[in-house]
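FORM 7B: Structural annotation worksheet

SECTION A. Query
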Amino acid sequence: MDQAQLTEFLVFIRIKPGCEDEFLRGARANRAGSVQEPGNLRFDMYRSSQDPHDFLFAEKYNSVEAVTAHRQTPHFLTFFKVLESVQEFPRRREAGSEIPPHFQRISD
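SECTION B. Predicted structure
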């Protein structure tokens, strides 16, 4: 498997109605910590213009080890707990960096 498939990816997340604010607070805190990680090259957040419950993270790291380290950080673990309670069904991760056209970037 190409290492880029493991280090550059999109995470699609569907949030339960009424949980958007809680999700966004947690997601923004996670992003703020993630962009400070030494191996992080990209962490952008998007929201669907077609469905306000659909979100997307575009992430890129300089190594598989950096991805593993990211998943062990306090900000990720805290966000993961929030995510478990607000996501409608399990998130989906896909290799790549191409943002679907109906997703709009969320400002910090």
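SECTION C. Observations
The CA atoms of residues 19 and 99 lie 23 Å apart. The longest strand covers residues 40-48.

SECTION D. Sign-off
Analyst initials: ____
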